[in-house]
Amino acid sequence: MRLQSAIFDMDGTLLDSMPMWQTLGSVLAANHGAVPPPDLDRQVASLGLWEGTAYCKELFGLSETVEELVNEIWGRIEHFYLHEVRPKAGVVHFLSILKMEGVWMYVATATDRPLAEAALKTAGIDGFFRGIVTAREAGQSKREGPEVYERALRRLQSTKKDTVVFEDALHALRTAKAAGFRTAAVYDASEPEQEELRRLAEYYIQSFEEMTE
Questions:
Q1: Half-sphere CA count of 24, side-chain side, radius 13 A
Q2: Which of 70, 79, 105, 158 is the most exposed, having the fewest neighbouring CB atoms within 10 Å of its CB?
Q3: CA distance linking residue 67 with residue 17, whole number of Å
Q4: In angstroms, rounded to a whole number, what is the distance separating the alpha carbons of residues 57 and 29?
Q5: Are 191 and 174 in contact (CB under 8 A)?
């Protein structure tokens, strides 16, 4: 893999954080003494935070307001990023090699800046990156378009042919590839479409540990 610069997604790519996002519904239920049905987390994920929380409130007959429950969930998310999140296996070594080789690196994430900065610091990898661009700052989600990658590229002062975008989610990788970036698909159990990721990406990474063996 030859590159002069790299743009990394954060959750599911650099950080082992997707299990937290995928269990917010069941954790909320358990915190209120309710037994979550098997498909609760899938339902909550498909609805989004506010609608998913409202769904849990109605399903379990919770007395708290939706806003109070959303604040409870955000408290869980913030605690995770501030105290618990860890890098995926092999990430630190891989980033160390890239930095040693003079590769400039940026993070392009859907997570808002305060949480993203906290997460990278907690995971001990914040020092590898020249900066962060968030989807909110770019004014466009990764489903909507590539602006978050384009901004990162401009700040890296690089070109698309010399830059690789690392992503674990199929929709995001499609966006980067359609915009002309070279792409590396990173395996995460949260993405079911692994064969399509493998087909689309120039590189497929089952584990960062394999990259440094």
A1: 31
A2: 79
A3: 24
A4: 9
A5: no
